[in-house]
Amino acid sequence: QVQLVESGGGLVQPGGSLKLSCASSGRTFSNYVMGWFRQAPGKEREFVSAISRYGISSYYADSVKGRFTISRDNAKNAVYLQMGSLKPEDTAVYYCAAREPNSGSSYALVSGYDYWGQGTQVTVSS
Fold first, then answer.
1. Gap between the Cα atoms of 76 and 73, Å rounded
2. In a 3-state reduction of DSSP, which class is residue 54?
3. Which of 23, 44, 72, 124 is the most exposed place for a label (fewest CB within 10 A)?
């Protein structure tokens, strides 16, 4: 089992920045591809970003490409999402997720992840 706890959410003005963190405990962190998803009110949960086990590869939704950066520190069992140039449409609950090795589903799908955090609220508003 893997336990995930997100932090760093809050209220930020349009154009501002915010860094989310996700702390992991349980099994070996470097075994897992890690992802960030978000869910706005009334909408389905959507893929934001993912990072490979050792941070060599990263992937982004088109809507955040160039504005968000995912990173991980396996020594600290943590994954991060640096968000910049924030827009009101980035407002959502942001979730951290872990994907078991050899998962057959796409890293961009909710179904591709096995463990989820409780989420952290990000609100972009003036």
1. 5
2. coil
3. 44
46-100: pLDDT as tens digits:
999 999 999 999 999 999 999 999 999 999 999 999 999 999 999 999 999 999 8
> Residue 105: CB partners within 8 Å, gap ≥ 6?
111, 112
C-alpha separations of 104 from 17, 21, 27, 34, 100 in Å:
34, 26, 20, 15, 9
Q: Are strands 78-83 and 68-73 parallel, antiparallel or unpaired?
A: antiparallel
Strand order in the sheet with 78-83: 2-7, 18-26, 78-83, 68-73
- Pairing verdict, β 2-7 and 18-26: antiparallel
d(CA 87, CA 62): 14
**Are 60 and 83 spatial neighbours (Cβ–Cβ below 8 Å)?**
no
> Is residue 78 a contact partner of residue 72, using CB atoms and an 8 Å limit?
yes
| Phi, psi (rounded to 5 degrees) for 110 | -55, -40
Q: What is the DSSP letter of 94?
A: E
Cβ-contact 124, 68 below 8 angstroms: no
